[in-house]
Amino acid sequence: MTTVLDVQRFKDEGRRFAVLTAYDYLSAKILDEAGIPILLVGDSLGMVMLGHPTTLPVTLDDMLHHAKAVARGAKQALLVGDMPFMSYHASVEQAITSAGRFVQEAGMHAVKLEGGGRVIEITRRLSEIGIPVMGHVGLTPQFVHQMGGFKVQGKTDAQAARILADAKGLEQAGAFSIVLEGVPSKLASAIAHALRIPTIGIGAGPATDGQVLVLHDMLGLTSGKAPKFVKRYANLAEEVARAATAYAADVRDGKFPGPEHEYSANGSAPATDSTRQGSPRTRGEASEFVGSEEVRYGG
Ligand code: KIV
């Protein structure tokens, strides 16, 4: 199983690594079996899975629900639960309680928190009690209203200095890694070189130690245009629409279900066409019927 020590080793040995978001059992299982070492149950699920315009409406209960499903699917990856807006902002005690639920109830191995400043002290306290923390600076979506939108951060010298200082503060407080989101590549490179712990970039150029993408962006399973920093490795939205249209046409034309999808009393294919009133299809031979008798979803 990947641990935070492995993640540090990746950096020490100069091995770049991939991180992806996972929000459900099946995608976690697939990504885990594909060897992705870190899965992030990101609060981006509020936008991607739940249709909210920002991540702000996502609750701790929403996150725990998805995190539990991911933990059921993944066996090898380091699992990081994203602390949602208002689950750690009120006090250190609230942060400890929320982070504890991610570990104790949802089976996460670490948590992620956005921002520097006061979050540095929260990071220190969580690290002290054995909950590994992934920091997150730069474009921090929970600050969307303060940033005036989802905008690249760190373009001015003052902003860049502040982000670098926050990253250093998080490292000193015990964070095991830091996400750098939506910052100029030059700044990300400077931070990656200044820190001992691994940096994980998203929209931060090639110099960070790891890269993270939202799974649905990477798979092209979205309804809009991809942002500039996303590379699409598949076009699943088109593929899903094509498959759904083909299925609907098959149902309309009586082509689905076919003989191979049917059950009969004795386990062989139903005998004749005459058992199906009005079906335009030609039935297969009974001996060709090879179907699972187990009636199960998602198999
Ligand atoms: O919520 C999320 O998925 C994230 C990553 C994009 C870093 O914070």
How does this model look, in words?
With 299 residues, this protein is of the alpha/beta class. The radius of gyration is 24 Å and the shape is globular. It has helices at residues 4-12, 25-33, 45-48, 60-73, 92-104, 118-128, 144-147, 157-173, 185-194, 215-219, 236-252; strands spanning 17-21, 38-41, 78-82, 110-112, 133-138, 177-181, 199-202, 210-213. It starts with a helix and ends in a 47-residue tail after the last helix. It has 2 domains: 4-219, TIM Barrel (Alpha-Beta Barrel); 238-288, no CATH class. The protein has an 8-stranded parallel barrel, surrounded by 7 helices. The structure holds 3-methyl-2-oxobutanoic acid.
| CATH topology category name of the largest domain | TIM Barrel
CATH class assignment of the largest domain: Alpha Beta
**Second rung of CATH, namely the architecture of the largest domain:** Alpha-Beta Barrel
- Averaged pLDDT, please? 93
Rough outline = globular
Give the low-pLDDT segments: 277-289
Beta-strand content? 5-15%
In what order do the strands lie side by side in the largest sheet? 1-2-3-4-5-6-7-8
From the alpha carbons, calculate the radius of gyration and give it in angstroms: 24 Å
Give me the number of helical elements: 11
Describe the structure concisely for a colleague.
By secondary structure, the chain is an alpha/beta fold.
